[in-house]
Specification:
alpha/beta; 20% helix; 545 residues; eight-stranded mixed sheet
């Protein structure tokens, strides 16, 4: 007996079921509910605003629409897509000053009826006000100079005290500060142990001994016993730096955020912490590390030691990416400008470039940068100069030197000053000057003498005092800022300007890590807004040779 196929009836039943499902009344499908939060409620013209929220039921992959109320109608002005958690973020800017009403709509589909969020108000200001007049922050970070070594004799600043003389263990005498017009300096060692020794319990007199020890000094009068850590420069040999101080703002109580060398400092510059982590995707495996973050040092001449470090904790670029704030990390190609672990001298220093992770280029080793596909934001310094000249600067720029232009001993001071002057001139000559603030500083003290005892705020810092200069059309003229500051204040200013004062705070930033404190919120830290007068007429450029 021949068996009859039942394929036909099965197909018919399946089609019938699909037709019946499609024809099911809308009431049988749940209405989408939408939450909506704005990153800010007041924005400047063109400022990117983040609209974020969640949709229920879970509809991963579904399109969501950002709508603006115009008269009696809602008009689409943006769109996004729900992630696997049914969450969305849409970024948009507005170019007309008004109070806007916005909402997010989820269109109807086979699993849901259409739904909308409550309408939210956004005030778009006609012109930027206050700190928001600064639309571009440029951080130029040079290398290895203490405040007293560059501005210890600057009029009105907290400079070198009269009668200063630091013990010289080699001779049993002492060395007083002296004017050093040499273009090349040696400096001293500047790791965590050297910081403790230079500080010497607050006596601030270990500089000469540490330099001599690092140089192998055993016999007074020999080259190994010659040290220049007590030497200082003045307006005669760093005239442009003194001109910037005279015409803009000099900060005489700006401290390195960490009492150690360049790598921990650069980590603080971009993330407000220095740590080592066990797993690249697990921030809670990170533990505090002041001297050797990310790796264990096995060879003092090797700049990229052991396995590639994993920086799992949260950094500034995570906040920028989340809120749609543009940033770039500009790195000058060449030899890296420091020794591993802050040694005084080193051989075999490697070449650095945007694609090469290193001591002065730590961002490629941050999990957030890789995860958010932001590696393209790390670029050559030539791209900064092109952006400055074209008027396309991002909101935040970090500009990092190579050895030759860094002022890190034994690089020439004059070469570094010329390099910085050219960067500043490029900004001043470009279309973005009227809305830019330049923060110029040096990453650590480099073993050079400074007389001010650093405040202690946690186990990592502060470190020694370094020069700080603020250059902007809204910077006060000839102002010396005596507030207690550190490089943490740069991020605090950036967060207040672009991130609605969101800190790198595990409790609120959306990506918790075990950092010991929230540096930007420390009550001792001053506010760099005091260096500005946002009511004054914008200052003209100061183009220097």
């Amino acid at each position: 007996m021949r068996r009859r196929s039942i394929t036909g009836p099965l197909i018919f039943c399946g089609l019938a079921a699909a037709i019946l499902a499609a024809a099911a009344p809308a009431a049988a499908r749940p209405r989408a509910t939408v939450s909506l939060k704005l990153s800010v409620t007041t924005a400047d013209l063109g400022q990117k605003v983040s609209f974020s929220g969640r949709v229920a039921p879970r509809l991963p992959g579904q399109t969501v629409l950002l709508q603006l109320r115009k008269g009696k109608k809602w008009t689409q002005v943006g769109h996004g897509r729900l992630n696997r958690s049914s969450m969305f973020t849409i970024k948009s800017g507005f170019h007309s000053a008004a109070t806007l009403k916005l909402r997010v709509k989820v269109p109807g589909g086979p699993d849901n009826r259409a739904g909308t969020s409550p309408a939210r108000a956004l005030v778009v200001l006609p012109v930027p006000v206050g700190i928001h007049k600064i639309q571009h922050v440029v951080v130029i970070m040079q290398e290895n100079r203490s405040f007293d070594s560059y501005f210890g004799t600057y009029p009105g600043a907290d400079g070198i005290p009269a009668g200063t003389c630091v013990p010289d263990p080699a001779t049993g005498t002492c060395i007083a500060p002296y004017l050093d017009t040499n273009d090349v300096n040696a400096g001293g060692p500047h790791g965590a142990a050297n910081a403790v020794a230079d500080l010497n319990g607050g006596a601030m007199n270990g500089y000469v001994g540490q330099a001599e020890k690092a140089q192998g000094c055993t016999t007074p009068g020999t080259p190994e016993c010659a040290t220049d850590v007590m030497g200082y420069h003045d307006g005669s040999d760093i005239p442009n730096y003194w001109s910037y101080a005279k015409n803009f703002v000099l900060q005489d109580q700006l401290f390195e955020p960490n009492a150690s060398w360049s790598l921990p400092m650069h980590l603080y510059m971009v993330s407000e912490w220095s740590a080592s982590c066990t797993l690249p995707t697990a921030p809670f495996t990170c533990t505090n590390e002041l001297q050797n973050p990310g790796f264990q040092d096995a060879n003092p001449n090797d700049q990229l030691l052991g396995p590639q470090p994993n920086y799992s904790w949260t950094d500034m670029t995570y906040l920028f990416h989340k809120d749609g704030i543009s940033w770039r990390y500009y790195l000058k190609q060449g030899i890296a400008p420091d020794c591993a672990n802050g040694a005084e001298r080193c051989d075999n220093a490697p070449r650095q470039g945007p694609a090469t992770p290193g001591i002065w280029n730590p961002l490629p080793d941050f999990e957030t940068v890789r995860e958010n596909r932001q590696m393209g934001n790390i670029q050559d310094t030539a791209a900064f100069q092109a952006a400055a000249q074209a008027g396309t600067l991002p909101a935040v720029s970090w500009v990092i030197p190579s050895q030759a232009v860094s002022e890190h001993p034994t690089a020439k001071v004059s070469t570094g000053q010329s390099y910085v002057t050219n960067l500043v001139n490029d900004v001043m000559k470009g279309p973005d000057w009227g809305s830019t603030a330049i923060f110029l500083s040096w990453d650590d003290w480099g073993g050079f003498y400074d007389h001010v005892v650093p405040p202690v705020i946690d186990g990592n810092g502060y470190g020694f005092r370094v020069p700080g200069i603020v250059i902007s059309p809204y910077a006060k003229a000839g102002f010396i800022d005596h507030q207690v500051l550190s490089h943490d204040a740069y991020n605090k200013f950036i967060e207040d300007d672009f991130l609605s004062s969101q800190r790198l705070d595990p409790a609120t930033d959306g990506r918790p890590d075990p950092r010991p404190d929230v540096r930007e919120a420390n009550p001792l830290l001053g506010s760099m807004t005091k260096d500005f007068d946002f009511h004054q007429k914008p200052r003209a450029p100061l183009i220097l040779p």
